[in-house]
Amino acid sequence: MTAPVSHTPAARCSWGRIALVAALALSLLLNAVAVGAWLRLREARADLLGPEAAAARLPDDLRQDLRTALRAEARSIRPLLRDVVQARAAVVAAANARPYVRADADAAMVSFRTSLDALLTEVQRVFLDQLDARAASEK
Question: What pLDDT was estimated at residue 59?
Answer without folding.
Answer: 85
